[in-house]
UniProtKB/TrEMBL annotation:
<keyword id="KW-0808">Transferase</keyword>
<feature type="domain" description="N-acetyltransferase">
    <location>
        <begin position="16"/>
        <end position="176"/>
    </location>
</feature>
<dbReference type="InterPro" id="IPR000182">
    <property type="entry name" value="GNAT_dom"/>
</dbReference>
<dbReference type="Pfam" id="PF13302">
    <property type="entry name" value="Acetyltransf_3"/>
</dbReference>
<dbReference type="InterPro" id="IPR016181">
    <property type="entry name" value="Acyl_CoA_acyltransferase"/>
</dbReference>
<protein>
    <submittedName>
        <fullName>Ribosomal-protein-alanine acetyltransferase</fullName>
    </submittedName>
</protein>
<dbReference type="GO" id="GO:0016747">
    <property type="term" value="F:acyltransferase activity, transferring groups other than amino-acyl groups"/>
</dbReference>
């Protein structure tokens, strides 16, 4: 029944939390890292082995300045990160995220982005601009950013080449002054 599903989704949303990655997240991480549907619009290739996935958690996820696991209760169901810039980009951070496809369409990614926005500008007082580039074909991700209050700034034509083709990217941003004012 639709009404029942809605209530259930609402309960799930209130159970969404973010925390740092841990080596013990490997099995949950494999669920989305090995899924073509998840990697399709992403620069990273689908993971094919547990060793490779363990390498990511150890060498990239844990040392990353701000990469969090999206948890539903105790289970890790996705990841979300803010990567700080340097040089002329020192006031900027780039947002990225991915979610286990079993949990798509419930508002979970939007909730995770809102949690990040609600904490990152206070955690990093130097941060003036949070930006995200989305493949023009990735309509679900564009919707997430719109729902989280990001501004769609424009389309960067043939901005990236990966997995055999050039892609237009849609540029989204949220400024600390948008959020804090
Ligand atoms: C993009 C992604 C994070 C979305 O997660 P999610 O939890 O399903 O997102 P939400 O439920 O919060 O919101 C998705 C919105 O997009 C909409 N949507 C999803 N697919 C769509 C499509 N193909 N066309 C149009 N809208 C779409 C949904 O209807 C929903 O909007 P609504 O609430 O107005 O109905 C998830 O699909 C994912 O992990 N994709 C693979 C990795 C990826 O693309 N990461 C982002 C790289 S920039």
């Amino acid at each position: 029944m639709a009404g029942h599903d809605h209530d259930h989704d609402h309960d799930e949303i209130s159970e969404i939390t973010l925390r740092p990655f841990d080596l013990s997240d490997i099995d949950d991480f494999m669920e989305w890292a090995t899924d073509e549907k998840v990697s399709h619009f992403c620069i990273w290739d689908t993971y094919t082995s547990r060793e490779q996935a363990m390498g990511f958690i150890k060498n990239l996820a844990i040392p990353h300045p701000w990469l969090r696991v999206i948890c539903l209760g105790e289970k890790a169901i996705g990841s979300i990160s803010v990567t700080p810039g340097s040089g002329i980009s020192e006031k900027k951070g780039e947002l990225g995220y991915a979610l286990n496809s079993k949990y798509w369409g419930k508002g979970i990614a939007t909730r995770a982005v809102k949690i990040v926005v609600g904490t990152i500008f206070r955690e990093w007082p130097n941060l003036e601009r949070l930006e995200a580039f989305v493949d023009a074909g990735n309509l679900g991700s564009q919707r997430v950013l719109e729902k989280a209050g990001f501004y769609k700034e424009g389309v960067l034509r043939k901005w990236a080449f990966f997995k055999g083709r050039s892609r237009d990217a849609v540029m989204f941003s949220l400024l600390s002054s948008d959020f804090l004012s």
